[in-house]
Amino acid sequence: MRQLKPSLAFIAMLLLGLATACSRDEGFHAKSIAGLMPALEFSLTNDEGNAASAQDTAGKIRLLFFGYTSCPDICPVTLGRLGAVIQGLPEERRERVRVLFVSVDPQRDSVAKLHAYVDYFGDQVIGLRGPEPALRKLAQRYRTTFGYGDPDETGFYEVSHSSGIYVFDGSGAARLLFRPDDPLAAMQDDLGQLLDEAS
């Protein structure tokens, strides 16, 4: 008996259907990373000098962002935007959201410096730091990286890092990727949806 071979058109339709299913945004504005990234997990030190892990903020929506306090542009702008998004939420909902700012510049970002920096951006921001190998491992876990530029005559150097913000739900599952050009209203709406899920 002759075996029937699927047509190229059928294969193309099947692949298109799979791609559409994988990229479905589940009603969110931001890019969905559900099932594409591992759950939130880390072992670092917070901006008060205490050991910190994902369990410390379990049950809250977590926004993970890599940066450094000497950053001239991306970091302050991003943290300012996130602060505006969170402040736009009803007061009782703000306490259910945390921004996890991971410094990838352990040489300059002491506990005290990190604490002063994140404190400027609001109570919902937690600074995290650690030795470079631990930071490399965490960055690799979420498929990103960072690097150091050459110091200038004053010793200042820039740190290259991602501008993406990884959004995790209360259970620690990766859900969304916020990007620099995402509108504040869209980000706020997405956080609202995640908070509704946990209600």
TrEMBL record:
From which domain of life does this come? Answer: Bacteria
Check the record and name the Pfam families matching this protein: SCO1-SenC
Protein keywords:
Copper, Signal
Residue ranges constituting the Thioredoxin domain according to the UniProt record: 33-199
Signal peptide (UniProt feature, chain positions): 1-21
Q: Which InterPro entries match?
A: SCO1/SenC, Thioredoxin-like_sf, Thioredoxin_domain
Q: Quick check: keyword Transport in the entry?
A: no
Q: Which family does it belong to?
A: Belongs to the SCO1/2 family.
What is the official name of this protein in its record? SCO family protein
Instruction: State the organism of origin.
Output: Banduia mediterranea
